[in-house]
Amino acid sequence: MFLIDAHLDLSMNALEWNRDLRQPVASIRAREAGLTDKPDRGRNTVSLPELRRGRVGLVVATQIARFVAPGNVLPGWHSAGQAWAQTQGQLAWYREMEKAGEMVAITDLAALDRHLEVWQSSSADPATLPIGYIRSLEGADSLVSVDYLERAVRDGLRAVGPAHYGPGRYAPGTHTKGPLEANGPALLEAMERFGVILDVTHLSDDSLWQALDLFGGAVWASHHNARALVDDQRQLPDDQIKALVARGAVIGASCDAWMIVPGWVRGVSTPVSTGCTFERLADHVLHICSLAGSTAHVCIGSDLDGAFGTEQTPSDLDTIVDLHRLCDVLARRGFSDDDLDGFRWRNVVNFLRAHWTGREWLA
Ligand SMILES: [Zn+2]
Fold first, then answer.
1. Distance 201 CA to ligand 1 centre (A)
2. CA of 222 to the centre of ligand 1 (A)
3. Is the pTM of the predicted complex or chain greater than 0.90?
4. pLDDT tens track for 301-312
5. Pairwise CA distance, residues 320 & 342, whole Å
């Protein structure tokens, strides 16, 4: 039961939360018991052994560093150069995991096919296999100028979400309004030229529509639930879901509780008090399927440990292994075995195959 998770902030967890992700989740929890240094630390759910235990053999793993102008209260760096340096530290962590045999970079179709073959072979023992990762940049602030994208692509970057929360240097992000910033179109043009996937997650509504118009390459929404079920700008409204489906996108179901159930009050609500379970997350998946008219556009984009822990995930989740419970719910609610294979991994692989076949990469 191989799984792909289309959104995990692994290097952020390693370097900002100081998590040695080679350790079991329980060891990391023990080490962090009582720590109050980071407001968003949360009770962790992800580590490399836990991914193996859950057969989550391939992930889209991020680099992430925001620029903040004076007066911006969000956490972030005071210059784009500092943000770039932070992402380069994150890249160094991924390289270190590769060197240790813990992870393997998936940057083209040949590597993807090799990796799938290893993980899906009946004789494979997942406990011994490296976690494959496709690298994505969440928020493009750290690209000091559009030229930096070329270097990042040569280093294996394969997806970019131009924005994160709040104002961004290339595009306004979640909970903001307005079109792309002045250099946004040039970034999209370079992304298309280099074959970089556009991740629309976190774009403002205006900039999402503008990006879909300007960008002719591959588009996905890596961790995004439905606005029809939880009304917030962070979520995808039905017309955006339909437009993404028309573009062949996959949309990743995200495990952040406030995006699953309405009325979440941070620090007050609990998964139990709000009835936040995988059953409710399945509602979002099924809503997207009903708009799409098929199950071909849904996948997992859990965002687990993305600045929240089990305080803010479905109550039937303890670690990332429990993503299989979401699949069980979907099976009960009508997904065939074939639909489930699509949701678990094949929809993402089909997406990558469609966009990576025949592509020449900068090296
Ligand atoms: Zn995010």
1. 7
2. 8
3. yes
4. 999 999 999 999
5. 19
